[in-house]
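Thread: Modeling a multi-component assembly for a lab meeting

Hi all, long-time lurker, first post. My supervisor asked me to bring a structural picture of a complex we are working on to next week's group meeting, and I have zero experience with this. I have the sequence lines for every component (553 residues in total). Could someone generate the structure of the whole assembly? Inputs are pasted exactly as I received them:
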Amino acid sequence: MALEICNASVIYPAQAGRPPVEALSNINLHVDEHDFVVALGASGCGKSTLLNLIAGFLSPSSGKIVLDGSDVAGPGADRSVVFQKHALLPWLNVRDNVAFGLKLQGKGSAADAVAARFIALLGLSGFEKSPVYALSGGMQQRVGIARALTCDPKILLMDEPLGALDALTRERAQELILKIWKDTGKTVFLITHSVEEALFMGTKLIVMSPRPGRITYRFDLPFSRRFLDGVPARQVKASREFIELREEVLRIIFADEEQVA
Amino acid sequence: MTDQSTMAPHLRKPRTSLFSTFSRARATRPGETYGVPGQGNTTWLSVATILALIFVWWAVTATGLVKPLFVPSPQSIVQKFVDVWVNGFTGAPLWQHILISTARVFGAFLLACAIGIPLGLAMGMSPIMRGIFDPPIEIYRPVPPLAYLPLMIIWFGIGETSKVLLIFLSVFAPIALGARAGVRSAAIEQIHAAYSFGASRWQVLRHVILPSAMPEILTAMRIGIGFGWTTLVAAEMVAATKGIGYMVLSASQFLQTSTVIMGIFVIAAIAYAFDLLMRFLERRLVPWKGKM
Ligand SMILES: Nc1ncnc2c1ncn2[C@@H]1O[C@H](COP(=O)(O)OP(=O)(O)O)[C@@H](O)[C@H]1O
Ligand SMILES: [Mg+2]
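Re: Modeling a multi-component assembly
Sure thing. I ran the full set together rather than chain by chain. Output:
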């Protein structure tokens, strides 16, 4: 698996008296198999636009997106998306939500077994028949992740998947996602505006800044591997190296903000 | 500010006047949510209102304040119901009048659902369909059915067709417009998720857009059949020999006020029963309505 974004730019045309927005400008990004790429940046710096390009919901104004040698021209089952919210189907129970992708692909016969596997993996066993609207926000996000995994995508795209969760649930969910990343060997592209989350989860970090949206810094990160090697999450996050990098990234982001403002 | 709890009881100002509810807000009891507009149970008040209305009705007729020609007594309405049930009205028993009217309204309603729901969905999904069908629907929709009743009769005769068609037209517009608006209920994330699993446009319509539109479609059906009952009397104005609307109209020509009022109550009762059924269906079919 290899994802290549070459010189991609996105300009949203002017509308209703507002000038055109250069949401992304000359983005270059290379994602290897098993990478966990985290895009970090303030609201409006083009993170979702970048994810929509990879997902194939949006075509770039210029440049291109290449997945395993072929151009991305639209959405497809090799790229699953986990959204921040509103993406589950409230008329289906947990199991049918998880099996939804497979059923759409006509793999209904295998769907229940595969769904059961990912329901167990995400710790949702026993809730198969529950209506999704009755679940907590954290459990709803786990249903969304299980659903995205069932179709065995090459890359998992997550747009602020933990953004609506409370702090405690959020830390648990970060750990769960990392364990699943390790167990399934997936490639992940995750968006967040939490610096701590970005540093803890990614193997590669891209820091983005707005107007025009671009990648301003890139870091390689060691922290998620440490956690997966057995160091407790809080200990990883409290380490001197983690805190120093966190402060550095925060300085970068605040400096950006001041330039813009 | 004084702490009320430390004041002697006789010093507390009474707060029960009607206007105090408007002028000041007080804390709710546990189990209620503070500040929800209009919260509270209305069942007892509703029952009391109905009983009071019946009592006033009975009182003005029993004291001879109003002549039976204008307002017959409640008892006479019940008697009339039993009488028409047993002896019939213009040769047909009451149940036949009820049956034929119900068949007309429901026939028109089912037809309106069968055409209006798919057409409304298509209008929601396709700008071409919307461009074509929006003007005709918006033009005829505000016109009262009585105005185009003569046209229906000229075109389709005095048989069942023109009657059902008249009711159909009044039911059709709200149902089609409801289905069209319902298309917008699906969250864009739900639609994107389906497409990213490789769904076709048809699958997205079938598995995401249609189910999310169900609450609005059911509401539109409820509103639509309400319009159907409203149009019934107009539909049975010309060349009908059976039906509740016909019964009410011809009774009014002979100044049989009690039959008129009885017919009105029968229509109200059937329409209300159907509304209850629709609400029940709504709770069963879309228990998730408004929850996500
Ligand atoms: N469909 C759109 N039309 C016009 N402008 C848009 C659209 N989507 C996003 N934008 C603008 O593009 C910029 C980047 O948006 P987005 O990618 O959603 O940022 P982020 O996800 O980082 O908050 C913002 O200034 C936003 O207002
Ligand atoms: Mg965003």
